[in-house]
Write a structure and sequence with these properties.
The chain is built from nine helices and five strands; from the N terminus they run αββαβαααααααββ. The protein has 193 residues and is mainly alpha-helical. A hairpin with a 2-residue loop joins strand 1 and strand 2 (28-33). Helix 3 crosses helix 4 (85-93) and helix 3 (58-75) packs across helix 5. The relative contact order is 0.16.
Length: 193
């Protein structure tokens, strides 16, 4: 989900059509019937109305799972520079990095490596805005070999130097998920009560 508000709105709207949300987290929703058969078309309409899309294609579902793992790696774990991104991802999916990268690029029209860089820069922006760490600490924490390398990549991605970014009145941020407003949902996620 993009935010807690989006999640709450989704739950409310689904409950209004007689659907119970058993689990809802980043890119994954598990639903159950409440008293009557659920009209899958109506569920799709609710998702579309809120700006989400139900993903049924197995490659698209895999890409969403890859995105979740990247978000976990970059935003929710202590970054370990000794573990390569590719090794972390391969360990989660038990598939070759080449296979995962090819499918990701085909679906997203961006390389997996570029997506990881974009996520890392978003995390760097978050850390800069918190003003709790020095740039050296951020570079180390995010697995950059030097402050210079972080600064160079930051400018390439954002168009701003770190110094210029810090003084912007309104910080430009792209949501954690970066165009990941899709929900992976298949008929096997439905259970009847």
């Amino acid at each position: 989900m993009i935010s807690d508000c989006c999640l709450k709105l989704l739950v409310i709207e689904l409950n209004q059509i007689g659907v119970e949300v058993k689990k809802a987290r980043l890119g994954d929703v598990t639903l159950s019937y409440i008293d009557n058969p659920v009209n899958v078309t109506r569920i799709n309409e609710v998702f579309a109305h809120l700006g989400f899309k139900v993903i049924e294609d197995k490659d698209e579902v895999l890409v969403e799972e890859i995105k979740k793992v990247i978000v976990e790696l970059v935003h929710h774990t202590t970054y370990n520079a000794m573990v390569r991104n590719s090794d972390f991802i391969v360990a989660r999916f038990n598939k070759s990095y080449q296979h995962l990268s090819t499918i990701f690029s085909k679906i997203e029209k961006i390389t997996l490596e570029k997506y990881i860089i974009l996520q890392r820069i978003e995390k760097v922006k978050e850390l800069i805005q918190s003003e709790e760490l020095t740039l050296s600490e951020i570079a180390y924490m995010m697995g950059y070999s030097s402050v210079q390398y972080l600064s160079t990549q930051f400018k390439q991605v954002t168009g701003y130097s770190v110094t210029d970014y810090k003084i912007l009145p309104e910080k430009e941020r792209i949501g954690i998920r970066l165009q990941v407003a899709d929900i992976s949902l298949s008929t096997e996620n439905f259970t009847q009560l």
